[in-house]
Each structure stands twice: as structure tokens, then as C-alpha cells.
Amino acid sequence: MSHAQYIPLLIFLVIALLFPLVTLAIAKFFRPAKYNKSKLSPYECGIEVDKEPERNFHVRYYVVAVIFLIFDVETVFLYPWAVKYRALGLFGFVEMAIFLIILIFGYVYAWKKGALEWE
Amino acid sequence: MNVTVNMTALMPLIILFAGISLTALMGTMKDSVKRLAGLVASISVVFAFWWVMERILPAIGTAAMESQSGMLTYSYYSVFLSGIVLITAVAAFALSEHYLLEEDFSHPEFYAILLASITGMMVMLNTSNFVNIFIGLELLSIPLYASVAYLRYKPESVEGGLKYFILGAIASGFLAYGIAMIYGASGSLDFITIVKTVKTDSLFRLGLLFILMGLAFKAAAVPFHMWAPDAYEGAATPVTAFMSIAPKAVAIGVLIRILYSVFPQMVDYWREAVLVLSILTVIVGNFAAIVQQSVKRMLAYSSISHAGYLLMGIVAYSVEGVSGILFYLAGYMLINTGAFGVLSLLKIGDDDFVSYDDIRGIGYRYPLLGIFMSVFMFSLAGIPATVGFMGKFYVFKALIHANYMSLALVGIGGSLVSVYYYLRVVVHMYMKENPEERKFNLNFLSMTVLAICSVLVIAAGLFPAKIADIANVAARFMN
Asked: Do B27 and A109 touch (CB under 8 A)?
């Protein structure tokens, strides 16, 4: 088996490794070195942090995020299906209907369990 | 596009999926409906079992029944293992009914989760395509992580679930990587196409090694066993019964299928690897089981050592070896369901009494329970007139016929060591006094399961011919 076809991949890997190193080195050479407290903080955004966040995010945010994710992934499958709808015909339609029913089943379950109630 | 769907082949999976949907939906309904979830789950499993045995089995001849270009493949071999999985599932459902009521934490979702895992096992067993092997493994594993952590208010349960999850995710990664390498080397994911292209070059060897590691993890073979004791101990006891049998049967079964029918040209390479794995597993499993203080944890290590005996059967590389393994698995299903079933009854409220100290004097206070447990312990130790003895006999006989005398001796040595810790249970039950008086509720359904298991353990130990014949047929028609 010839491995020649993988050489572009290897070049790409080398460039990907070199790029951040080279840019950091160049930046180090040109930039002025003026450090202060807010610049050295982990999430620097220009404004000094005056207090820690008071509490964790409530768990219901995660539930909503998970439900959102279900439908987000659904669209990933729906787009290619819609493009090839005519070629797939009735079989494709039934398959997609089954897929959607499974998803909707999960949604109904979450709804019934009260995942969407905020208070 | 013209696609034909073979509904007969697909039906067991559809039935199980209907079971998942129904039991999950029951979780949103009234309490009077919720109580029926175990029944609904059992019915869907029994129905799937009936379908496999009545509709699919007659359609299989010497060649396997294929549909969807090999994505679903039923052979005598895979149907035998599917049967083991489905029977274990019904037994586990029957045991969990009492266990979860006593625990006062019975939710229909429990059954939905286990049914999802069973569906994954069916997908993984009945296929001849690596994509379905991987999808089946994930569908098998992810619900199992959840079912280990099901008793979410108990730290041990959550700890076991988390360990199982993290290590299991890595093992799944190994398997996927191995499959990717095999695909890279052969250009196909289909077993029949791969077997035509297999050479013994390094990419195939590396890919096979990764696949072996991924499946050895699921079978809890040393050195991939670290998760097993904690996960087995933390899980609800009926779940432990289920996960000590079904995933092991699936992992060993699929491993045999892949090694024997996809990579027969590489037998010299994988034989060595499986040989080392099996010796390590038998030794570590048996010696670690000796020092345990909890019977449940001891049984976890014992199930590791049994994975070792099963792996030894793989080394034999003969039809005799495979039929020995299949017989062993069928017997192991009866014994382990029973042994963990007895432990699942030793429970008051949400306290389990499963340490050696707790079972002192059980044999006198609950004579029937004592007899059952003794039968299962004798059988696990491999004492003649039980199915455990016959299983070991067939596997070791196959090893000796394949000129692996020393490996068979290691296995026999391991069994000798195991006699000590299995009989220690019997000694504690009958020869020690228990200062504490505990009133266990011996549920009728669970006792029925135990009675059936112990009668079958003795019956199959005395008259093994029937199961051995079926196992022999299953072993000969793998593809």
C-alpha cells in the first residue's frame, strides 16, 4: 500500500503545529510588555472582576439545553434528507417519519415529566 | 431508490423498542399504571424471545439468515446467545420487582433503561457488520452506566456508575479506533468482505489488538477489569445479576465471532494475546476474590475469573471449544442469576445485608434460601453433579484436545482456589452463629426464580446432553 496520498495530511499537521508557535514568537518579539492585574486574569475582557458569580446555574438550564440539542441534531439529519427527498421516495419518507416520531416521543416524555416548567 | 425491508428479521428489535417506549411513557402516568411496568417489560422480552425462536430460527439453515445486506444476520450461534440474553433479562426483571419495592424506589424508567441495553445486545449479536457492532456496544453500554447509577441517593451506586462510565467510554473509543484501522486496512466494514482481504500486516494486527481490548473491557478481563468490582457492588443486586451475565456473554460471543470468522488467518497472533489475557484473568480474579469481606464483591471478582475460563475456551480454536463456551455461558446464566438472586433477597428497606458477617446463620433461619445458595456456590466452584462442573469440563476438555495441557492446568488450579471462597459462604451460612436477628421478606416471585434456577443447575449438571447438543449445533453454524 502506498502512503503517498497521506503526505498532504502530514504537511497540514506540521503547518498546524507551527502556526501558533510562530505567531506567538513573532508577537513576543514586537508587543510591549505591560502587565497588570486584569490582563493576567484567566478570562480577560478589559473590565476588572469585582465579585465571584453568586450561584451555579440552575439544573433546569441543562435540561432545556439537552432538549434543544435533540432538535438541533434533528435538523442536521433533516437537511440532507430534504435535498435528496425525491430520490429516496416513500421509503425515505417513512424512515424519516419514524425518526421524528422517536424524537417527538422523547419530547413528550420530557414535557410530561415537567422538564419545561420553570418554577 | 428501491429498498426492501425484511420485517421478520427486524421484528425482535421493533418489539423491544415498543417495550422501551411503553415503559418510559408509563413513567408519566398514574401510580396504578406504573406498577405494571415490570410486567410490560417482561412481556416485550418474552415476545421478542418467542419471535426469535418461532419465526427466525426455522428460517435459518446451515447458512445464516441475512437481511439489509448483512446488517442483521441471524445464525444458530447468535440466536443461542440472544436466547441467553433474553432469558437473563426476564429473570432480572422478576428479581428487581421485589428489590425495588423493598428499596421503595421503583420507577418504570428502570425497565426502559434495561430494555434499551437488551436491544443493544441484540443489535450487537445479530450482525455481520462492524458498524452495528459499535452501535450495539454503545446502545448496550450507555443504559448500563445509567442503571448502575440508578440508586442515585447512594454514594456507592453513583461512584460505580461514574467509574464504569469513564472507563467504558475509553474502551468504546478503543473499539472504534480498532474498527477504523481495520476499515483503513481492508476498505470494508462487512465481515465477509474483510475476511477475503485479511493479511497479517501491521495495520490489521494493530486494529485487531484494539478491538480485542475494547471487547475484553466489556467482558471484564484482566487487566481491563478495574471497573467491575465497584460497578457490581454499587449497582442494585438484580442489575448486578444482569450485568454479570448478559454483557459478558455478548462480549465473549462477539469476540469469538470476530476472531474465528473474520480473522482466522491471524490465529497465531491473537491466540497468544488471548492466552495471556485468560491466564491473568483467572489468577487475578480468583486470588482477589479470596480477600473480600462482602459476598457481593466476592461474586464480582468470581465473575472476572469466570471470564478467564471463557477466554481459555477461545484459545482452543475449535468447534469443541466454542460449544464448551456456549454451554458454560448457559450454565453460568443459571448459576449467577441464582447467586445474585439470593443476595437480592437479603434486604430490609434500603439496607443490603450481603457481607460474610451478615449471612451467618442464614441456612438455619431460612432453610430454603440456604439450600439454594449452597447449590449455586457448589456449582460456581465446579463441584460435580452441577452445571458449573460440566461447563468447566467441556472447556478444559477442548483445551486438552487442542494440546493446551498447561493452560487447562492453570484453569483447574484456579478452580481449586475458588473452592475456598465459594465454600466459605456455605460455612458462614451453616456453621456460624449470628447475634443479630433479621427478618427478611422472602418474596414469592423471586423465590420461584431461585427455585427454577437451582433445579435447572442440578438437572443440567446430571443430564447435560441436551444443552450440549444445542450448543454444539450453535457452535458449528456461526455464519
From this structure: yes
B70 in contact with A, Cβ within 8 Å:
no
Q: Is B403 left (phi over 0), alpha (psi -120 to 50) or beta?
A: left
Candidate from A91, A109, A113 with C-beta closest to B1: A91
B30 — contact with chain A (CB < 8 Å)?
A: no
Q: Does A43 fall in a domain?
A: no
Range of the domain at A89: 59-112
Beta bridge partners of B294: B355
Section A43-52 average pLDDT: 67
Q: Where are the domains of chain B?
A: 7-476
Whether residue B71 has pLDDT greater than 60: yes
Does residue B223 have a cis peptide bond before it, meaning omega lies within 30 degrees of 0?
yes
CATH assignment of the domain containing A86: 1.20.58.1610
Q: Total domain count for chain A?
A: 1
Q: Is residue A29 part of a domain?
A: no
Would you state the cell numbers that stand for residue B206, as one nine-digit string?
494493530
As a whole number, mean pLDDT of residues B95-108 equals 92
Pick from B304, B309, B289: nearest CA to B223: B304
- Which residues in B34-102 belong to E strands, given as ranges? 65-67, 72-74
Please state the rounded mean pLDDT for residues B173-197. Answer: 92
B435 in helix, strand or coil?
A: coil
Residue A63 lies in a domain: yes
User: Is residue A32 very low, low, confident or very high in pLDDT (cuts 50, 70, 90)?
Assistant: confident
Q: A87 lies in a domain?
A: yes
Closest chain A residue to B185, measured at CA: A1
Question: What is each CA distance from B26 to A112, B13, B37, B110, B149, in whole angstroms?
Answer: 11, 20, 7, 11, 21
Contact B28 A92 (CB under 8 A): no
* CA–CA distance, B337 with B296 (Å, rounded to integer): 13
Kindly state the cell numbers that stand for B461: 449438571
